[in-house]
Amino acid sequence: MAGVSELESALQMEPAAFRALYSAEKPKPEDENLVFFCQMGKRGFQATQLARGLGYTGARNYAGAYRERLEKES
Fold this sequence. Notes:
Elements: H1 4-11, H2 15-22, E1 34-36, H3 42-53, E2 59-61, H4 65-73
Parallel strand pairs: 1-2
Helix pairs in contact: 1-3
């Protein structure tokens, strides 16, 4: 997925259109763990809030962000 700006329209697509565009199953609003993250944390938080606003109650933000994950692997 390209980014937060694309997320709203992606989560509102019909499942078949989502699959055709992203080659993946569209998450369901009731899915328990729809995890968002980014390099620093801000966009991941924004994506989580947007998804929750669209009814994706299991949307979560990986607060440590990508940078933290890389540091832990070093």
